[in-house]
Design a protein that fits this description.
With 186 residues, this protein is of the alpha/beta class. 38% of the residues lie in helices and 17% in strands. α1 packs across α2 and α2 crosses α3.
């Protein structure tokens, strides 16, 4: 029995698709595909922006110490809700790290998860992420919806939400950087 070129190509294609489900290569392939199909988030027009009025929100820092979100009142703030076990979150965090590298010290970053510390610390070390992780206190009142993961908010100094993005986005873009430069300068 002779096997034709078409059959060989079909078998190779089937094996390639199966590799996305059965091997680590598939995991990295899915992360790359998520990155390829994530775009710069839309900016909310100034007249349409909602305002955060209550900054009284208790959180935990990377050392598991309690602090209040109120310390960020009057600052430009980026909030990202993520989970280490959600593939889209992993894909998005690369661009968040790039944004953090560029704007660390100029604005406040809250990269928030509701997971326990050990798996988060392992995830951060594995991927080389250096942005600060913030831990959500479940049941605590929040000025945002903590149930939509992943999702992100960019808040100006007056508390207006300039960007709200459900699902993932590419945060390392000229569009986002231009907006951040403008918001930080105000």
């Amino acid at each position: 029995m002779k096997i034709g070129k078409k059959t060989i190509v079909n078998i190779a294609l089937i094996l390639f698709v199966l590799s996305f489900f059965l091997t680590p290569m598939g995991h990295y392939g899915k992360v790359i595909l998520n990155r390829l199909f994530s775009f710069s988030p839309p900016i909310i027009e100034e007249a349409q922006r909602e305002r955060i009025t209550d900054y009284d929100w208790k959180l935990k820092d990377a050392d598991w110490k309690f602090f209040n979100f109120e310390k960020s009142k009057g600052n430009v703030v980026f909030i990202n809700l993520w989970a280490s076990w959600k593939l889209p979150s992993e894909a998005e965090l690369v661009s968040i790290q790039e944004m953090y590298n560029r704007y660390n010290g100029k604005m406040d970053f809250y990269i928030i998860t509701n997971e326990n510390r050990p798996p988060v610390e392992e995830f951060m070390a594995k991927h080389g992420f250096t942005f600060p992780v913030t831990y959500l206190i479940i049941g605590e009142k929040t000025p945002i919806n903590p149930d939509e993961v992943p999702s992100s908010y960019l808040i100006d100094k007056k508390g207006n939400i300039a960007i709200y993005k459900r699902k993932i986005a590419d945060w390392s873009t000229t569009k986002v950087y231009n907006l951040l430069d403008k918001l930080i300068a105000e």
